[in-house]
Automatic annotation (TrEMBL):
The keyword Oxidoreductase applies. Pfam families: Acyl-CoA_dh_1. It comes from Solihabitans fulvus. Gene3D superfamilies: Butyryl-CoA Dehydrogenase, subunit A, domain 3. This is Acyl-CoA dehydrogenase. GO terms for molecular function: acyl-CoA dehydrogenase activity. Keywords: FAD, Flavoprotein, Oxidoreductase. Residues 134-263 form the Acyl-CoA dehydrogenase/oxidase C-terminal domain.
Length: 274
């Protein structure tokens, strides 16, 4: 966590690139992103998977507003996902203003204007990249949900009240059990969605999108819900800077706003399933 608290690590990024982790197939990448989430590693990893030969790659969805980009100042390239396709532009050439971020390890910039790009790939490619981004963000959220559960279980076994570990009390047991259920539901949904994306065929695009939307919805709920409950399991002291839990919760909040919020995913699911 000392290394995590230092922020984006260019040396670590080079190590991951040299290992080829951004070139893996989508199913294996989802498993990797779960571990990156568990370790709370900061960085624009989704973009690196979408364009593995462009260094650090930030991503912005041109359909949403405001146009917020994570890690823009550290990125080499900005990928723009638009209705007409995808475009890329050197990150240094993008007009943007730094804005406050709830997560101190995920700096944000707001684009003051959408950069001029040459669209390529068409709407289908843009939609496919959005789905991949949502899937990998969901996988990261699963890692966060698992990490805070593990920390809470260890704390409940070690912390004592009235001569007994707090994990022996029914209220704490129920809290941890609910966290475990959220995690397993989300992990199953993410794994299923990864297989759906990997095996996608043109005539089953709606089924793939439904699987990804469900995975993102459940993973966001697991990450944010588990991080909040972890704060309670630790006696409500999780927001002090010295404790790492607040970093997990804040990262979960950031990811929950990327590649589809809970409301957007629920609305899209309702539309697809009608």
């Amino acid at each position: 966590m000392e290394r995590v608290r230092a922020g984006l690590d260019a040396g670590l990024w080079r190590e991951l690139t040299e290992l080829g982790v951004f070139d893996l197939p989508v199913v294996e990448t989802a498993l990797l992103f779960e571990e990156l989430g568990r370790a709370l590693v900061p960085g624009p990893f989704v973009g690196a998977h979408l364009l593995p030969d462009r260094g650090m790659v930030a991503v912005v969805d041109a359909r949403t507003g405001p146009l917020l980009v994570a890690h823009l100042a550290s990125a080499d390239t900005l990928v723009v996902l638009g209705d007409a396709g995808i475009g890329e532009v050197p990150a240094a050439a993008v007009p943007a203003t730094a804005v406050p971020s709830v997560d101190p390890l995920t700096p944000l910039h707001r684009l003051t204007a959408l950069p001029r790009v040459s669209w390529r790939g068409g709407p289908a490619l843009s939609a496919a990249w959005r789905r991949t981004g949502a899937l990998l963000t969901a996988a990261t959220q699963v890692g966060i949900a698992g990490a805070v559960l593990d920390r809470s279980v260890r704390y409940a076994r070690q912390r004592e009240q009235f001569g007994r570990p707090v994990g022996a009390f029914q209220a704490v047991k129920h809290l941890l059990a609910e966290m475990a259920v959220r995690l397993e539901l989300a992990r199953a949904a993410v794994h299923a969605a990864a297989v759906a994306v990997a095996d996608a065929v043109a005539d089953a695009a709606d089924d793939v999108e439904s699987a990804v939307c469900a995975a993102k919805l459940l993973a966001d709920e697991a990450a944010v819900g588990n991080a909040r409950d972890a704060v309670q399991a630790h006696g409500g002291v999780g927001f002090t800077w010295e404790l790492d839990l607040h970093l997990y919760l804040k990262r979960a909040w950031v990811h929950a706003a990327q590649f589809g919020t809970a409301e957007e995913c629920a609305e899209r699911l309702a539309h697809l399933l009608v």
